[in-house]
Amino acid sequence: MAGLTIYPLRFTLRALDEVVLGEQAGAQLRGALYSTLREQATRLPIAQGGAPSLEADPVRWLLAREDESAQRGKDVPRAFALQPPLDPQRRYPPESHFTIGITLFGRRTLALLPVIVGAFPYMGRTGMGYGRGRFTLHQVSLLSADGSQTVLLSPDGDQVQMPQQGISAEQIAQRAADSNAARLTLHFQTPTRLIHQGKLLKVPLFHVLMARLLERYDLIGAEYGDDFTPVPPDLRTELLARAERIQLVENRTRWQDVFSHSRRSGSRSPIGGLIGEATYSGDLAPFRTWLLWGSYLQVGKNTVKGDGWYAVR
């Protein structure tokens, strides 16, 4: 499982006006970020020679990538996943603080950190959410594997510090080894939208979750890892066979219908999914590392809009 490093970033924002986000907070945040980056891109020269490269055209590389040789066709997984605030109300009065997360995948992608940090002042002036509430960037931190945070940009700072290290495969494996309980609970914090046999999954079946996790891990690692080793086919087959024997013993999830609205096209897209808690039992040892990976990578559709974010308990 070597070859992939991730950087879970936390952006603490201070409201200037009342900032009001809805159930589709992830989509609102993604829309504000993309609009800002898109405007930045229009002020940059367009790199010649086909698809945008990270070095020559970083903003367009982040916004939309296509790769004819990609494992699943032209579209490849985006280089980040987004985590919206989890407060039920998502209403922030002036001078209050709220936090969003952006996890960058791969050491090369980390080069985009100054670009992303630089987008927030413009986003804050333009406003976000219902009523376009304005905000300022208060602090940027990096989350470590043990849950502690390292400040990269302090409230009184003017330059972001580049992280010396992110979360590695070795650190995730160590965390997984610290627990060997025969039960665990997954808390689906944002709508998790999984497809199984061409249909939306309305029950959090363990073997389906694992199948999607392994696919996502391989796709992200292949695109953004260094000397990445994919899951061996025989191991994948064994894991999925064993996953079918894991029991869903408590299902406290529900389906939440959420829609993403596009200001540009006037259309809306479904981004709803399962939220709540599911408890599993059985021989969970082989899966703990993968489940921890998934808690960072997120899983299912619309991860750049905040979907598929869960916690392992």
Brief description of this entry?
This protein is α+β, with helices and mostly antiparallel strands and 313 residues long. The protein has helices spanning 25-42, 58-63, 113-126, 169-177, 206-224, 233-243, 288-297, and strands at residues 6-15, 19-20, 80-83, 91-92, 97-105, 135-143, 149-153, 183-192, 195-196, 199-200, 247-256, 259-261, 268-270, 273-281, 310-312. Strands 3-5-1-6-7 form a 5-stranded antiparallel beta sheet. A 4-stranded antiparallel beta sheet has the order 11-14-8-15, covered by helices on one side.
Note down, in words, how this protein is organized:
With 313 residues, this protein is α+β, with helices and mostly antiparallel strands. The protein has two domains: 6-153, Alpha-Beta Plaits; 169-312, Alpha-Beta Plaits, CATH 3.30.70. It is 28% helix and 27% strand. The strands form five sheets. Strands 3-5-1-6-7 form a five-stranded antiparallel beta sheet. It is globular and about 50 Å long. It starts with 5 loop residues before the first strand and ends with a strand. The mean pLDDT is 89.
Q: What is the secondary structure topology, with strand pairs?
A:
Layout: E1 6-15, E2 19-20, H1 25-42, H2 58-63, E3 80-83, E4 91-92, E5 97-105, H3 113-126, E6 135-143, E7 149-153, H4 169-177, E8 183-192, E9 195-196, E10 199-200, H5 206-224, H6 233-243, E11 247-256, E12 259-261, E13 268-270, E14 273-281, H7 288-297, E15 310-312
Antiparallel strand pairs: 1-5, 1-6, 2-4, 3-5, 6-7, 8-14, 8-15, 9-10, 11-14, 12-13
